[in-house]
Amino acid sequence: MLLEELDDDAFLEGFKTAGFCAEEWDHLGHIRAGALLVNEMTPEDALPIMRAGLLGLLDRARAEGHDPRTGYHETVTLCWLKLIRAALDAQPTPLEDARNFCRAHEELHDPRLHLRHYTKDLLRSDAAFNSFVEPDLQPLP
Question: How far apart are the first and last CA of the chain?
């Protein structure tokens, strides 16, 4: 089944339990999971759940014989949660379906959006991989 066909509850459960194979997971999956989480809590409170889900998906991808291009990155993850929260706050109505949220916010489709806030040098640092660091280009919303 395509991820797009799953309702939000089933999608979030699949994310939390590493229920998706590497071929199914993409950037919009990250955005959808993030929207579902930060719709219910702050980005900081959502971070441990997002971290656990992403690490589970990375472990599953490796177990399936894939070599993910990158590993988990704490700063990038919290940055995206904050960007998603800002998009949710800008909506005139509450989140009803995260699939529609993803379609309505094309600005979040750019997987390099976080580079408006961070230089690549800062993101390559051990500190940025392991804990959240503030942006060095422009503040996060």
Answer: 35
